[in-house]
Design brief:
about 160 residues, elongated
């Protein structure tokens, strides 16, 4: 290997390491009051967040991944998301802020989108998986009240 190749490998390694450090710092210090809808083009608020967002975008292109998965669009009137066990009015308001208003939107989330929504849930972070909101929403989106109640108990309100 030539000296140029070695320097290039070291440089790329340092850039990737810095990117991951920025990403983890950015996710761990996320604001619970940010009302920017997830999946939008808005990036960080400040020098560190802006730098982390820029590095994340470059690394995403380099690795061929999308760290900004688009969330399903709402079609039709909002559903009473509070019917989902473990999802109260404040969590519903936070989901609405993120652009989720219907059962079918929650039901359609893939793993990456669930992580994106969870990252924006503030004090409710972790509840989407713990309380199985996506699975509950799948039953409710299909109108399967019997299946919902068999698995999760009596439908709330």
């Amino acid at each position: 290997m030539t000296q140029t190749q070695i320097l290039l490998i070291v440089f790329i390694t340092l850039v990737v390491a810095a990117a991951f450090l920025f990403l983890f710092r950015r996710r761990d210090t996320g604001s619970t009051t940010d009302t920017t809808p997830l999946g939008s083009d808005a990036e960080g608020h400040g020098a560190v967040d802006g730098a982390a967002a820029a590095i994340e975008d470059v690394v995403d292109q380099f690795l061929g991944v999308d760290s900004h998965p688009a969330l399903p669009e709402a079609t039709g009137p909002a559903d009473p998301l509070t019917q989902i066990k473990g999802l109260g009015p404040k969590a519903q308001a936070q989901l609405n802020t993120l652009g989720i208003h219907r059962y079918d939107q929650l039901a359609a989330l893939d793993e990456a989108q669930v992580a994106t929504v969870d990252a924006g849930m503030g004090t409710f972070r972790g509840r989407i998986l713990k309380d199985q909101w996506v699975d509950q929403a799948r039953h409710l989106a299909k109108g399967d009240t019997a299946g919902f109640e068999a698995k999760f108990g009596k439908l709330g309100g």
